[in-house]
Structure formats: structure tokens, C-alpha cells
User: What shape does this take?
Amino acid sequence: MKNIFKIFKISKPQHKWIVIACVLITLQSVLQQATPVTLKYVVDELTAQVSNGNGDYSKLIYLFGLILIINLLVVILNTANQRFGDFISSRLGRFLTEVFYKKIFTLPQSYFDGEISGKIVNQLNRGIASIRDFVNGATNFIVPAILQTIFGIAVLSYFDVTIGLLAFSVFPVYILITSYSTKRWGRVQEEKNVYEDGIRGRIQEVINNIRLVKTYNTQSKEWGFVSDNYSTVNKLYDKQSTEYHILNFTREFGLEIVLIVILYLIFRKTFFGDLSLGEMVLIIQLLNQLRWPLYAMSYILENIQRAEADSKTFFELLDLKSIEKYEDKTVSALAKKPEIVFKNVNFSYNDGNEVLKNINLDLKSGETVALVGHSGAGKTTLINLILKLYEPTSGDIFLSGKKYNKTSHAWIRSHMALVFQDTELFSSNIRDNVAYGLNNVNDKQIIDALKKANAYEFVQKFKNGLDEQIGERGVKLSGGQKQRIQIARAILQNKPILILDEATSSLDSRSESLVQDALEKLFKNRLTIIIAHRFSTIQNADRIIVLDNGTIVGDDTPQKLAKQKGLYQELLQYQIAGNKKLLSKYELR
Assistant: This one.
């Protein structure tokens, strides 16, 4: 039940509306008892007229007028309550999405490194749906069911204590069986959710990598994965359904037996004159009304268990420790000449895998620094530490003398523009992607940035120019075009620190040369950090930092490192040998 209490707690902004809905429900429940009571007096008048001819017709008209008014009020209150339920549900859906989404922004990068985006979205959708359904059900069923039970049993007991107690005895047994049934349902539901999260996550991965799937002809395999997992889900659902319907038959059968016994007592008492016809009609109507709170309580318990199971992963994510804060609307003044310093920095993943060891660096403003090393040497991890996407396991990082662990993420990142190795584009138009993160940017500035990135030439050819929609992750663009859009974005940002992660890797030789000229102009008076495997992109770097197995094994100018035996010289010789081989093949040397 712990998640149910969390649901009540997290829905606090809607509590005032829920209270209003409960008041309307209370009035509706009281009025619903008034109709059978009024009908009792109608039957009494009819009996008096049939028996001895002294019935009061004007009273009969009055009573039917009262019934009409009562029923109209019930309909009005029911309509108002349902409207309130929709109002609460929609606001709660928005609120829960905002809470979940806000939490996502505060989680460490390591969380996203280990999770599938489709799975996260599925947890969000399922959690919100279950919480909304529960709150809506609680508003529309819990309060009226309790009130109708109390009023119904009270009125029954007033006319006949035996019948009232017998009717009341049904409730604990019915609820006990329902509670047992829903607990068993919930345990299987949690297991189903694990499979369904995996299915949704895999489907999204396949859609994101559809070209890879088609190229390697793995459509049948991917289809089989989803089909097999859904087969398991169906088996679990069959188990749920079988257990549920067996227990449901037991409680429904028992309920019918008890109701038949009560009906027998009612007719027997009426036959021997202990109850009037009007009282008999009233009691039968009240018994029929008591079926609804029984079914409602069954629905409530099932909803509670479903909400408990389906909201579990939603609340598990909300309970994760928040690392970042992003609500800061204003960022303090940036350092004019930022300098980044690493002092004895080590970094390990949660599994204990050590990636960086005893890193000591001093990166000065105006320098162009290149990070070189084999794949897996720790270059990207170092960049993630600079961006404060990761936190060091030990040691300290400083930006212009300020410790990273005592400085906001927003202030640190406000100094930096970056171009990723992976394409980081949104499924909007070119204008929005280039101007991303900036306000009040005009088309002239965007076009200027595109020209510097050697991108405006191909943008002009699009039918819609800057308004051209580029598809998810820029799927309508070539690899080189996507990277040049990213470069234009970094140029437009005009930040004092520029980070390039294989920024020109997807460009042809001509485009790379043109973009390199633009970037070199951009490097002036900035701290530029470059990750590169192609040495042509770092030939004009001021410093080369050579990483090997998470440690710095070289730190000097390109010229000096090229003359020293070591990893850099080895990598350089490999590239030179490859180029010579290519030139020789085409007889260009």
C-alpha cells in the first residue's frame, strides 16, 4: 500500500478539487436513498386506496413530483461530479508528467547510460494512467460506495434489524475474497510490466535503428523477439484471468445465495404482516442499491492493486537521487578567460570499472587542445567530466578557480558550446536546430553561422530553406550535413569554451577543409578541446594530450610529440603509412 499513500501525497495540488467532488458525491448519495423512501410512501397510498378506498391522490401527485425533483438533482449532481472528475484527471495528468519530466532533467547521466529511452517513456505513460485512474476512481467510487453502504444499512436496520445485519455481513466476506484476488493479480501484474517495458524499449530501439535492421535482414528476428515476449505476457495474463474469474465466481455465487435468503425473509415477513407492501418495496430497492457499493468496493480494491503495481516503477524513478538543478533562471557572470584544471581526478563507473586514473591537467583560455588515444582510452569520459555530466570518483575539477562540486551545472555549461560525435538534432526545422538554446536570434545570424560552417549552400537548396523539417535525429540529412548543422549551432552559441568530439569526421575532404578554416577562426581567444582520430583535424593544435588506458601518457606540442617515442608517434606513423599507401596505389607520389 506504500505506493497508494504516495499517490495521495503526490496528488496534493488536486486535493481541494477532490474535496469539492466528495461534497457533491455525499449530496448525491443522500438523495439516492431518498427515492426508495419516497416510493415506500407511494406504495402505502396505493395500498390504502386498493384496500379501503381512502388513498390521497393529491398526496400521490406530490410524492411523484418529489421523486422527479430528487432524480433531477441526482442527475445534475452526477453530471457535475463527472465533470469535476474529468477536470481533476486532466490536471493530474499534466502535473504528473511535469513532475516526472522535471525529475528526468535532474538525474545523472549514468542513469541514461544504463536505460532504454522507450522503457522510460513506457513507465511514464503507465504510471500516469494508473495514478489518474485510481484518483478518478477514488473520487467517483470510494466515497459514494462508503456513504451508500452506511445509509443503506442504516435504513434497512431501521425497518428490520435482522435484515440489516444480514445485509451487512455480506460486505466483509466479499471484500476479503476481493482483497485476496487483487493481491494475486498485482503480483503477476508486476511481472508482466517488466516484459512490457522490455518490449516497448526494444520497439523504439528498432525504429531508431531501422536502417541497420533492414540492412542486416533481422526483421524476422526482431519481430520474433517481440512476439515471444508478448507470448509470455499472454501466458501471465491467462494465469491472472483464470484466478480472477474463479474467485469472482465464488464471491458472486455467495452473494446471490445471501440475497435470496434475505428476499425470502422479506417476503415471509410481508406475508405474515410484519412488513407493509411499501416497506417491502423500500427494502428490496435498498438491497438492489447495496449491490452497487459491493461492486464498487471490488472495483476499488482491484484499482488499488493495479495502481500499486503499475505506479511502482514511476515512483522508483521519482525516488532516485537528484544530482542536478536546472530551475535557476539567472546564471552569474561568466568567466572572461575560463581555465579548466584537473587535480588528481579519478573516475569509475558504478560497476567499479576504472576509466580515468590520476588525471592532472591545466587547460588555459586561448589554447587549442587535442585529446588523442585509442578507442576506450577515456577521451569521451574526460569530456563528460568537463561538461559535468559525470562526477569524479575522487579528485577535483576547477573552472576559473571555482570547484565543480560547489558550482552549479548551469554556470559551468554556460561557458561551453559543443559538437558531438553522435548527431544531436531534433525533429524540427533547421532554424530551430541551429538556434537551439538561444533566444532572440534572427535569421541573418543563423544564416551567417550556416555559411561559416559551410552548410548554407545545401540549406538554400531545400524547398523550405530554414523551415525545412529534418526528421527524427535529422534523418533527412546526410551525415556530413547533420554535422555541419551542429557546427553552425556551436558557432552561433559563441561561447568561451568550444568542445569538438570528432566534429569533422563525417565530412568529405573539401567540406572538412572549408569547415576547418571556419573553426580555426572560431578557435581564437577561446579554450578549444578537440577529440579526434584523424590527425588532419588537429595539425594546428597548441597541445596534444595523449590518453592510454585512462592515464595521460603524453602532453606536449604536436611537433615535439611526433619526435618522441610513444603512443602519439605510433598513431601518427599509422596514418602517414596509410596515406602513403593510398597515394602509391593511385601513383600520386
